[in-house]
Automatic annotation (TrEMBL):
<dbReference type="Pfam" id="PF12796">
    <property type="entry name" value="Ank_2"/>
</dbReference>
<dbReference type="GO" id="GO:0070531">
    <property type="term" value="C:BRCA1-A complex"/>
</dbReference>
<dbReference type="GO" id="GO:0004842">
    <property type="term" value="F:ubiquitin-protein transferase activity"/>
</dbReference>
<dbReference type="InterPro" id="IPR002110">
    <property type="entry name" value="Ankyrin_rpt"/>
</dbReference>
<keyword id="KW-0040">ANK repeat</keyword>
<dbReference type="Pfam" id="PF00023">
    <property type="entry name" value="Ank"/>
</dbReference>
<dbReference type="GO" id="GO:0085020">
    <property type="term" value="P:protein K6-linked ubiquitination"/>
</dbReference>
<protein>
    <submittedName>
        <fullName>FOG: Ankyrin repeat</fullName>
    </submittedName>
</protein>
<dbReference type="InterPro" id="IPR036770">
    <property type="entry name" value="Ankyrin_rpt-contain_sf"/>
</dbReference>
<keyword id="KW-0677">Repeat</keyword>
<dbReference type="GO" id="GO:0031436">
    <property type="term" value="C:BRCA1-BARD1 complex"/>
</dbReference>
Amino acid sequence: MIKVISEDFSSLGRIGGWLLRRAVPGLLAASVSVSAMAQNTSWWRDIRNDRASAVAEQLRAGADPNQVTDKGEPALMQAVRDDAWEVFDVILADSRTDVNIMNGVQETPLMYTALTGQLARSQALVKRGAEVNRLGWTPLHYAAAKGHADVAKWLIGLKAIVNAPSPDGTSPLMMAMRANSVDTAQVLINAGADPSQRNLQGQDAIDMARQFGNDRLADAMEKLAQDRRKAQGR
């Protein structure tokens, strides 16, 4: 996925139910100057238009790289949403940037770059300390959701938990089935993904493969699950 549009994110069924809380003292909120407000507006406008040099100038002037939108989206992640990759690189290069910052529904920058298939930028995030594994939805879920087999394989190489369950029990393999991505499914299965793992609705990856019209893959996974059970004496 090259161009990020809102459905790329909403199609995952945005996780979490809590709102991002940012405590701002009343006196400070009441005393924000017009110039400060204008600077903040300029910041988001420059991100939206991928004006990397303008954002870099604001950062040098002391702008906070971790500031968030009124919807709780951190600047680094808003750059992904705006397809502003030069700005993304500038913000990521700032030593003050929190690479594990979360938005209002507990998503991280690495989840966004995994979702959009940005392997090199995902690698840059991890080099800065981004976490590969976490409770709930993971970067591996997000890579699988859009069929980015290369990103999934790389994450697995970094010990990403292949059968990690989301809050509703969805596995990365189930997400690959929703994306109808055979390549990603193969990467996950080769790494030990369990086709018979079920979510809270009682569905497994085999069910989802059939649901999305991939009976051939469903049959192959069903046989794999049976063979694994036999090998384990079950």
